[in-house]
Amino acid sequence: MTPPISDSPRVVLRLDRISRRRAGRAAVQDLSLELQAGQVMGLLGVNGAGKSTTLSMIAGALRPDSGGIELNGEDFLEQPELARTQIGWLPERAPVWAELSVEEHLDAHGRLRGLNGAALRQARSAIIERLELQPLARRLAGVLSQGQRQRLGLACALLHRPPLLVLDEPANALDPVQVAALRTLIREQAAAGTSVILSTHLLPEVTAVCDRVAILHEGTLRHDGPVLADDHAALEKTFFGIAMNGGTAPARAA
Ligand SMILES: Nc1ncnc2c1ncn2[C@@H]1O[C@H](COP(=O)(O)OP(=O)(O)OP(=O)(O)O)[C@@H](O)[C@H]1O
């Protein structure tokens, strides 16, 4: 029998009241969020609001003290190895080994994610071409500029075509040409069904590429709602209302 066709969107990531203390303080508290397939969510908040802590928990690099994380319906905290194949993570400061070339980085990342032989070579050339890294392919990471390192970090996150991209301030150190290329890349990933959660301090980044925005303040969710394309004024009003006054209670827009 043909199964009933469901038009409800597939949830790729579900955070259920996750909390994490750092240095004796609540860095993230009781955070619940859902991200659907092909959705791009921007995570905003002032310095220290808890964005990187949240993204590190989603990427499996930091374990919540309490709460649950589901990845494609699986219990991620029970199966942290899912991160290798299901998640592409660009941390706030993408770690690089100074003495490895760009190609060697991609090979190492690919092997960690189970790619080998022809599949690895194919994935490596595809991402080098897509991110226009050909001129840098043989260069050692130690001599790359900050923006070039950021592009290498992005390439490592995308290499294995994960269904979820977790990008911590991906536009960091990129020049305006590369920022525009990053926007195109993110929308392209979303159109192909990849879900993206990204943190940023740039409000125009959110209105340019995100479908939804979540705003954290002092570790708690103060806003979760849709982004109206290019409506900077509405986003600024919401963001500054929270940043300056802390907001009132966690709010969820439709
Ligand atoms: N490695 C760490 N050790 C101890 N405390 C930390 C560490 N990293 C972050 N914190 C604390 O956790 C809280 C949340 O920090 P987090 O880095 O998640 O915020 P953020 O929103 O990403 O900030 P920013 O915009 O400055 O990057 C802050 O109080 C911070 O001091």
TrEMBL record:
Key words of the record: ATP-binding, Nucleotide-binding, Transport
UniProt-listed SUPFAM superfamilies: P-loop containing nucleoside triphosphate hydrolases
Gene Ontology molecular functions: ATP binding; ATP hydrolysis activity
Residue ranges of domain ABC transporter in the record: 13-243
Pfam families: ABC_tran (PF00005)
InterPro entries to which the protein is assigned, alphabetical: AAA+_ATPase, ABC_transporter-like_ATP-bd, ABC_transporter-like_CS, P-loop_NTPase
Similarity section: Belongs to the ABC transporter superfamily.
Stated name of the protein: ABC transporter
Provenance organism: Rhodanobacter thiooxydans
Native organism taxonomy: Bacteria, Pseudomonadati, Pseudomonadota, Gammaproteobacteria, Lysobacterales
